[in-house]
Amino acid sequence: MRHLATLLLSALALLMASCAHPRGGYKGYMTRTYTVRGQTYHPMSVDQALHHSEVGTASWYDESSFFGLKRGNTSIGEKVMPWHNIAAHKTLPLPCVVKVTNLDNGKSVKCRVNDRGPFIGNRIIDLSPRAAKKIDFRDQGLATVEVEVLSVGDGKYKRKKRRKWFFGLF
């Protein structure tokens, strides 16, 4: 009887885990307010983000571990692999896709922003090691970059930045 109860509880736990939302419980994008080290951050709305670009200091961080097989360390519960072009930002909706341009050499990379940070100094974005390498600042650690939002959200919630056509008239 005891084994049957254990088996039933295990089956129930497995069933409940399989019903969990695959992206950490958000629908399309995440914009909720959060607090880190006593500082409260208010992420921007999707409309604000779609018109957002900024210039500032970028750094890089490595969230992957042994052969990159560490799971669930992004703010939206995504798997992190060392070959992904991902980034962390304090106030953009998660997830979103940004174009990051190294202003020292003109090289750019598209990154999926799926985490929060950086929470050090005046840095505006943290990139994965691969993304930092693609725009040639991994060895330096920091770079002056421009960040431009290209899209926000996933699946049917995804919204892309509107491009200006005909000399900016539309």
UniProtKB/TrEMBL annotation:
<comment type="similarity">
    <text>Belongs to the RlpA family.</text>
</comment>
<keyword id="KW-0449">Lipoprotein</keyword>
<dbReference type="InterPro" id="IPR012997">
    <property type="entry name" value="RplA"/>
</dbReference>
<keyword id="KW-0732">Signal</keyword>
<dbReference type="InterPro" id="IPR034718">
    <property type="entry name" value="RlpA"/>
</dbReference>
<keyword id="KW-1003">Cell membrane</keyword>
<comment type="function">
    <text>Lytic transglycosylase with a strong preference for naked glycan strands that lack stem peptides.</text>
</comment>
<feature type="signal peptide">
    <location>
        <begin position="1"/>
        <end position="22"/>
    </location>
</feature>
<dbReference type="Pfam" id="PF03330">
    <property type="entry name" value="DPBB_1"/>
</dbReference>
<keyword id="KW-0961">Cell wall biogenesis/degradation</keyword>
<feature type="domain" description="RlpA-like protein double-psi beta-barrel">
    <location>
        <begin position="54"/>
        <end position="146"/>
    </location>
</feature>
<dbReference type="InterPro" id="IPR009009">
    <property type="entry name" value="RlpA-like_DPBB"/>
</dbReference>
<dbReference type="InterPro" id="IPR036908">
    <property type="entry name" value="RlpA-like_sf"/>
</dbReference>
<keyword id="KW-0472">Membrane</keyword>
<protein>
    <recommendedName>
        <fullName>Probable endolytic peptidoglycan transglycosylase RlpA</fullName>
        <ecNumber>4.2.2.-</ecNumber>
    </recommendedName>
</protein>
<keyword id="KW-0564">Palmitate</keyword>
<keyword id="KW-0456">Lyase</keyword>
